[in-house]
Amino acid sequence: MQSSDLKKLKIAVVGAGYGGAAAAKALSLLGAHVAVYEQAARIREVGAGIGLRPSTVNRFREWGIFDAVAKVSSPSEYFEILTATGEPIMKEAWPADGEQAHTHLIHRGDFIEALLGVLPEGMVRLGHRLESIQDLGDRSVLTFAGGEKAEADLVVGADGIKSVVRKELFSDQEPVFSGEHAYRAVISVGDAHGMVTDDNLRMYVGKGTKIYLLPLRHRDQVSFDITALCADSTWNPRNTKDDMLATVEGFDERLVAITRDLDMDVVNIRAVYDIDPIDTWHSDSVVLVGDAAHSMLHHQGQGANSAIEDAGALADALRAADTVPQALARYQAARKPVTDKLQAISRQGWSAEEIESVFPGQKPAAAAAQE
């Protein structure tokens, strides 16, 4: 689209999470008028750490916000998968993107603060819970709780796994329970029983349980995550310390000790959900990004990265196409095949058999030595 047309474009972003904040930044750089509507009265990201892949980091460089992210993150050279007792299964460098080879490990809260911190003051409007959306073809009307309305030439639905935009316009499929619970906490490096000595992610797998140790050494902390099989599909389950300890039985005693020492008041416990791929992400004036379009399980660590990539691809498409509808079609064509595959592979839970299917030929060192 011509620069003059982009500058006339009125865009409403629904949701101020990773996808919404990134989309707001990328689209505002086009010169468009952007407003972000967030249902929360205060933005507070709980949970733990994530890894920002090299392609994501390159988007931050492109948008001029790399320094804001870099100062609250640590560069990591590789990731490693091990058995429950610490025998190595595989170790790989992070996939590079051009000259960018490092993944940056960051706390979720620091990440969302960094993204929102680079948006112009007043762009994000808190306390706006979307109740309905009316798609009028060349524009759409949003109605929020309390009756306030907003009209936009383009609505970006970045409202998460329970997206109102998706349900109203594109798919009424409900989120899908994975059969797992996730326990997440951030602890000091000193409480990690000597298991964190560098800036690299390690995952321990065994008996349907995965334990992730993700260093946040710029904070002198480590993100400690347990994902374990559980039939309870309650979104916010009430699990006990004994429940957690049962999931790590047989793991390295240091991992058991970390679990035993956790303060349950700071452990975030969630049932793990994703969505099935949906056929259509857009109309002529509405488009989905991030979890609203393709929520995926966290086993590949690609949820936030995919949301950032969506934001970049959407901005690229608007810049390259002649009209908004053409841009939205171009965006879906570029991103949906990628996220469909990521959704599928993220449903693999990293048992020994599943590791073999994703990383053919990789075997625990002990098993390889016996051959």
Automatic annotation (TrEMBL):
SUPFAM superfamilies: FAD/NAD(P)-binding domain
InterPro entries membership: FAD-bd, FAD-dep_Monooxygenase_BioMet, FAD/NAD-bd_sf
Transmembrane segments: none
Domain FAD-binding: 9-342
Keyword terms, alphabetized: FAD, Flavoprotein, Monooxygenase, Oxidoreductase
Flavoprotein as UniProt keyword: yes
Cofactor: FAD
PANTHER family per record: GERANYLGERANYL DIPHOSPHATE REDUCTASE, MONOOXYGENASE
The protein, known as: NAD(P)/FAD-dependent oxidoreductase
Organism: Streptomyces tendae
